[in-house]
Design a protein that fits this description.
This protein has 106 residues and is an alpha+beta fold. It is built from three helices and six strands; from the N terminus they run βαβαβββαβ. It has one domain. Strand 4 and strand 5 form a beta hairpin. The chain starts with a strand and ends with a strand.
Length: 106
Amino acid sequence: MPTFYRIVRTDPPTESDFLSYAALGLPAPDDPGLRRVFDGISVFDTEERARRRARATLALGRFIAAVEIVTGDPIRAERTLRRSGHHTLWGDPVALLERVASVVPV
């Protein structure tokens, strides 16, 4: 069961913490590589990588949610972008929220 780490704004997180840029209504990027991940959410493979990213960009959020994905889930995960340990998850925001195992402050 892989665990991914999502930077979130609230503790406990809400569905809005798991909305993609597309779901938020932001304009799609021109870059095809970025457009591919636009419908998903950014996560990291370790809590420490998520923490470093959150500290570098405080606007992302002040908490880190551990999201546990189970084999057979309707959630797809893929290693994406060039940032070390960065992955994208594609799935329903409610389903992602239901898989939050824990939340810690940045």
